[in-house]
Design a protein that fits this description.
CATH architecture: 2-Layer Sandwich
Strand content: 15-25%
Structural class: alpha+beta
Number of domains: 1
Oligomer: single chain
Distance between the termini: 39 Å
Order of helices and strands: HEHEHEEEEH
Number of helices: 4
Length: 147
């Protein structure tokens, strides 16, 4: 397995102690998936401590705290290419925020969401269209800049 990503890449706070259980979950549930992706990832956010979540005014129940299998947020220049790969991964919840994807294992079955001030459950065809329509203008901007 190509190791583009390592555990430390998924730790948002560099100054906190990361429990061994969190490291194990990153190694088991996230690194194998991320290291199979071909789309260049420009940013990854994985583990955030409970204390960090509380400090940010959140309830502390985020999947990013890794109380279960954990979560990652992924950014790429080509979000549509990333989407095409993510829909083939074992992640059971994929939420598109417009400029990044949140991926986790919270649901026992696959669900797709878009974030519109809250998560809206959509089917795979709606997700495909939403990501494509969002990614398309950015690609056209690049073409117009080159022309």
């Amino acid at each position: 397995m190509d190791s583009r990503f390592k555990v430390s890449d998924l730790i948002y706070e560099t100054h906190v102690h990361v429990p061994k259980e969190v490291i194990r979950k990153i190694e088991q549930y996230h690194l194998p998936v991320l290291n199979e992706l071909q789309t260049p990832i420009t940013s990854v956010v994985g583990y955030r401590s409970y204390q960090y979540e509380i400090m940010k005014g959140r309830p502390g129940t985020s999947q990013h705290t890794f109380t279960t299998k954990g979560a990652v947020d992924l950014v790429a220049d080509d979000l549509y290419a990333l989407w095409k790969e993510l829909k083939e991964t074992p992640y059971t919840r994929i939420c598109f925020y417009g400029n990044f994807f949140h991926c986790d294992y919270k649901s026992p079955i696959r669900h797709y969401y878009v974030n519109k001030d809250h998560w809206v459950n959509i089917d795979i065809n709606q997700m495909e269209k939403t990501v494509y329509e969002y990614a398309r203008p950015a690609a056209l901007d690049v073409l117009y800049t080159i022309a």
